[in-house]
From TrEMBL:
Pfam families assigned: WD40 (PF00400)
Organism: Cacopsylla melanoneura
Low complexity bias locations: 614-631
UniProt WD repeat ranges: 21-68, 117-158
Protein name: WD repeat-containing protein 7
Gene Ontology CC: cytoplasm
Keyword annotations from UniProtKB, A to Z: Repeat, WD repeat
Biased composition range(s): Acidic residues: 641-652
Amino acid sequence: MLQLLHGSHQQYDDWPPHQLLVGHQGRVNCLLYPNHVHPRYEKSHLLSGGEDFAVCLWDLYAGTLLHRFCVHAGEITQLLVPPNTCSPRILKCICSVGSDHSVTLLSLAERKCVVLASRHLFPVTNIKWRPLDDFMIIGCSDGTVYVWQMETGHLDRVLQGMNAEDVLNACDENTSNVVGGEGLGLANPAVHLLRGLRSRNILSAIRHATQRGIHQLQQLHHSSHHDGHELNKSRAFPLLIQGLRTNPKDPESHILCFDIEALIVQLLSEEYSAMSPGTLEAQGLINNTEYSKVAALTQSASPDAHKKIAGFIGKMKEGVDSVHTRLQQKAELAGLRLNTGDAKVSGGSNEMSRTKICEANLTMEIAQLLLSLLHAWGLDPDLDKVCEGKLGLLRPMVPVSFGVVSKAGHMSLMLPTWQLCVERKEQFSAALSIDSSLPKELVALERLTRQFTAQTHWELSTSLTTNHLITIISLSSTLMSMNNASFVAEQERNRKLQRGQSFRNTANTLQKDEAVEEIMTAQQAQIKQGWSLLATLHCILLPDKVIQAGGKNFKRPQVEMMARRWQHHCLEVREAAQALLLAELGRIGSKGRKALVDYWGQYLPVFQPSESATTGNTNNTGTPQNTGTTQSLDQVPVSHEEEEDEEEEGIEEFSFRKPSSASELKRKQTTAVVLMGVIGAEFGQDVSLDTKHPHLQAARAHNRDGERRKSSVVEGFGIGNNNLARHTSLALTHLLLAPPSPKLPAHTALRRAAIDLIGRGFTVWEAYIDVSKVLLGLLELCCDADKLVPSMTYGLPLTPAADTCRTARHALTLIASARPDGFITTMAREVARYNTLQQNAQTLNVNLSNYVLHRAKTEILRVVDLLIEKMHAEMSSLLIEMMDIILHCVDPGHLKVKPLSDVFPAITRFNQVSHCPTTRRIAVGAKKGSIALYELRSSKCQMIPAHNSAISALAFSPDGKSLVSYSCGENKLSFWQTSTGMFGLGNSQTRCIKTYSTSPIAEMSRLNPMRMPKLVWINNKTVTLMLADGSETRYNI
């Protein structure tokens, strides 16, 4: 395919490169690339069978012959791979069939024949497997069936007639049962022992029976830690080449099938495998260290617990090191072998590099090919230069025939003859700079190619436009997140060099030349900017660019296809679909959004506020990211006035029709929930906007992930007409809180989309939902965040449970950032209820360890710490509520041995909070002038009316006997002393023993949250008041 792309590779004498494997003495009958079937096989292994009776094992990377199996007495006719449920020894074998009616199992690890089945009298026509019973069943052309034992290699029985057919049919039934039941019904290991006794091979039987039992335990352990549907997923490959021939006499054509998700996963896997755990942590891809610090606060602080935690952390570190070692080994096997300093340079090094053609980064070449074919060449000449010079993309020399594959496996392909019907435009017939480097006969074709890439490509189909734009944006984002990810040969060599240096931790690595490092940093910045510009062109600027180029029939992306990918399991595809959908919703204007709402609003499921979450509904679907090919609406262009053409371009009218099937109705309801949620969250009106809290509005606007485009509120999502907002919020809440069921499993893309949209548009849904239930439902999903979830920027797909957990965590962060006061007060109210339950737990017979607030302490602390860090001024008015939450989450044992500033340093940034380790008390000053005094020994809180204005600062004396408080609004400083009864019995009483009037401070200094007053004790009798203007005043008790 590269020969159809213009680039410097065409100038090489030895191009196109090829590899010749010489080893057979005659015709090659069959080929097998076993890694294509299952990843347990080496990537570098290729097997071939020929008419010379031999099976050859090749190393694709080195181009060498590893081993020749000469077992058959006839030509090799077929090569097969045993199923995945065989014993560990058989899993390393492949099956070969010869024309001499023999079948063998050849071990690639042991380099020998394990089983030779050669007693068949007629040609072999069928091979079946019963791996759980250790049987290989071979059917011959005369109807005879031979049953062979794979472990021992003995012929178990020979069947004919109806018995033979029954055995073959039973094999098919057994295969379906294994797929449905996770392959856990393993045969009893004692069966192998009995077979060994019968065949007089006792030692081998004992060994295989033991291995079988161990394998059974491993399978059971593996199944208990993984979801079933994850095990059944077939492997995907970035590129598959399929032959196509419409007539037996025509030459064979080839179709290139790209799997975008597999390509992204492979790119990120290679990138992450080259990083150490410390590098992953430093780049924000994982956050185990920070999260473990917060999680440790919720655990017991006893010495025994410390030992257990230390041992657990040690095991975790060993596990991380072992994972890193395995990743490094995989990277080396994939062609990232490191060059050591002791390596000798031989004269044949160039020849060796020529033979290792396949060892080049094939994944990057596939990405280069795909992006080169999809990029809109000719729309932005400056960007084209960047793509060719910095990014390494190749310009197509011929128009491309694109196609799409439906969910059911049907393919729609455009044939090359369509090029004859394309009318050439004058602006594309001018001579181009690239024409001089092409033969004369290709100049006209290249001009047609330029017209195709800039215009015709985007006028073919809405499905093609949607898929291609999501592909370009997601791949650009992936490559932008990688280090020096460029297709230029020199940049690729530098990237591999950096990968090699990341494995080594030597003095040479630490002593890099600063000039070289600056050059590399500048190049990396230019490459990242290039990928960003490429994504911006196709996400935002493409429609206008195509129209400026003369296009009149631009096929816009389908909003329903992007909505169904709103929570795609691949993060890069998910973010690309979200960005493209939001850009399209903003581009169509208010009338276009109104048309979408009018059409999709009829499919929005209706829930009553009192409806039980267990109610079954037709909107419960499994995975809405699987897109169908059936269009449910007819797109008719509408004429508009000239002044509205630019803003409202592309508005559609939708024809209403009933869904043709129940599955289509479910798909439309799923799309409606997501689309209404996106429109409401991004273009709905904040129902609680008022002028009472302008600082909260400013904080919310500052902390949202991007500006919310609310220049025109969609009807139904405003304050006056809130019908759609109410119904959408109820649907999203139902999807969040509904218990798992066959119709709505626990972890689906639809449920994740509802969680994400609740967080994005919480200010719109807040008036119509039960905030406490929503927050507790999100916390329920975050209970195991430390075990499942890396950071939000970790690109590799997660398990469904981990993905749901990560989405819920992000939604909690968005809700807390948008409504910090609502989050804190709601959590404080739930903590008060929890404490009431805790006091009456034995009476009510309640198991508090299963309660959400008990299991989600780590996540609550994380959010509180985030709010203090990001919204320090807003949190100053909620200190008592925050302290209630913190004391609930932090284990009391920590405050016995360490001060509050060491346990949870974020809260001590407020001068209104003071902790006395001696008396084990915490004092918190409230905005209304009262002091909350927490007795940690008795877990009680005493409220003291201290001032008539907000308390600005307070502090305990070093001996803990006195407490001083100051209110700058009241200009008063007070000393407090706590007294108890004789021998510490009775209730403690806190009274004011002295009061001072302080000098007033300027209004500007008083309201500055960054320069709050501070109280510092000099000794047990004297305290210094430090004001915002820099003055210091001493006061004595």
